[in-house]
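Annotated sample (chain length 117).
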Amino acid sequence: MTRSAHSKNADDDESDEPRAERRSREPREERRPRVKPVVLVRKAREQLEELIGMESESISALNKTGDGWQLNVEVVETPRVPDTTSILATYSVHLDSDGDLIGYERVRRYSRGRLDE
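Output written by the structure step:
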């Protein structure tokens, strides 16, 4: 079966404008800007510190999840002298894709001078 000169396929437009030019005018799906890891770490530390009232010392893990990020944040819970006897804790912090804290949990407490076995 042949097409008549007046029939159009689905890609045809009312104008004779090339398809590439039509596509460039069509609205594109808005993409969210990616949050840089250094910004995620800063936001996680600030938000956790505000909630628990203690300063974070370091980040020991940063992982992308399906809906955001998961970080392990090390916090000095009980400073002592000498420093090797201070009590630290690891907090698992969950951020959404924008870097906003959506949950946290203390997952470990340990003495600074003790090695993992």
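Annotation: The longest strand covers residues 68-78.
Annotation: The beta strands are 56-65, 68-78, 87-96, 101-111.
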